Amino acid sequence: MRKPIIAGIDPGTTTAYAVFDTEGNLLKIASKRNASTGRIISELVDFGKVLIVSCDVSPAPKFAETIAKKTGAVLICPRKSLLMSKKARLVDEFLKEQREFIKISNKHERDAIASALYGYKSTRRIFDKIGEEIGRELSDSVKERVLKERIAIRKIVS
Question: Which residues, 6 or more positions from 47, have their beta carbon under 8 angstroms from its beta carbon?
């Protein structure tokens, strides 16, 4: 099974995306001008199975909805759009924890990281519980079932 990933999307004339694994590690940050959903999806699936598409605004942009629908991912967005200060705090805290320098080329990439971090933080407790219950090596398929099918962890592991 391919590793599940979280994709933070910031659509627009310049579309940016950030790819995280379900342990909160940044795998890729990129931005493209005039990028199609097909191109972004193609780049995302190179990193694994898209489990979550996350954005930082509410309602979710159609571009993010389309990517989630075409990849079979769960779409996560906040009830209210994240304030700039909240996005800055999310990204700054993440960058301080990193052992290596991460180059962020523009505000779109920064927003994509904030979006992915929002999705990760929204699901981290579930992912941690799954890891504790069944072990890290078996947890990827369980993460997908719990999020997509909304099945209790106890039902899957019993």
Answer: 3, 5, 19, 27, 28
